[in-house]
Amino acid sequence: MIKAQRGTKDILADEIYSWQFILENAKKVFQNANYKEIKTPIFEATELFARGVGDSTDIVNKEMYTFSIGGVDKNETSITLRPENTAGVVRAYIEHNMNRLSPPSKFWYFGPMFRYERPQAGRQRQFHQIGTEVFGVKDASCDAEVILTAVEFLKSIGLDELEVELNTLGCPKCKNEYRAQIKEVLKPYLDKLCDDCKMRYEKNPLRILDCKNEDCQKIFEIKEVSEVILKDYICDECKNHFDELIKYLDELNIKYKRNKLLVRGLDYYNRTVFEIKSEALGSQSAVCGGGRYDGLVEMLGGTPTPAIGFAMGVERLYALINKINPEKINYFIVSNDTISALKLAQKLRRNNKSADFDLQNRKFAKQLEKASKVANFAIILGEDEIKGNYYSLKNLANGEQIKIYDFSKLL
User: Model pTM greater than 0.70?
Assistant: First the structure.
């Protein structure tokens, strides 16, 4: 028997209603905030992620599904299944000259992403994300609106016990100073860092702070190390930006806390970074992550453009919400006259009523048993009904049955 590949999962009929609930609420909340939906290709040029996400990240180094297309005598092209969608949306923003639009340009998306990693609760190799991206506004009001939009969406699907964790990474100048200080204070402990952090030490030392290895975590708790980590290495402009954001969140009554270890796993972030967490997921508690990436548009060939966004894993959201039961159809047609049942089903469906009938032409008792499970009403079409040109309509909730002579009464 051929089974689904490890790290992939079928979304079955009894689950899809909850997925649709999540997606419908996303569409409603984001459109109410004037976000426009965007769909980008599932695969992109590998260079897009190597340049945009960063070649020092685990995503680029370990987790991408990358393929070469073209033979020896052809121009070989490397493509990658998208591991995240921000880089793809930025590519689309640049390619279609959307910088000419009046800012802000606000987009939302939903779709599958792909990362080769160890499957675990709420995390698969093919997974789905809902996210937003906003281009063209550098003010802290934009950061606050993006965080508010994420919180409002999570509340719309029934998630209330949430906490926003915040940090600021500063501008490139601030980040460079912070990197230098992190390298200096960790230098005596370099041999005690995990293998991944030893590589990060050279390429992107801030990524060390994102490490979940227990030995590395213990090093962060050493007094002289923690003092450097917890100190703010940000310029006055970046500090003012972060202070403004805090004021907005206070006015919006959004609960938050500062987390100096929060750096996010992608190289393109600057200034504001945030995660929204739910204790219901235990150690894998983050349901949303995002931040500013003011330099990414320029890095990928566009004009300098401030930008911010977030992404949420739908599998994690599904694990947290109250499951939605399938809605029953309007009518189940009970009849042994298959052509009459099919014609009536067609007529009802054309009038925007959901209807089904028994394709196996079983006994009435079996058909009524099936009807009671899937429909609100049974329309009985026996010999008497067909000869008398009427329908027997049975309310499957209370058992009441009436005769209907006018089809329009069924609509």
Answer: yes
